[in-house]
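User: Could you check the structure of this?
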Amino acid sequence: MLEFPAMKLFLHVALKLRG
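Assistant: Sure, the predicted structure tokens are below.
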């Protein structure tokens, strides 16, 4: 349920912090 959106959000934030 929240695993899909959570993973997407996590990746998005991770890429933003890395970028």
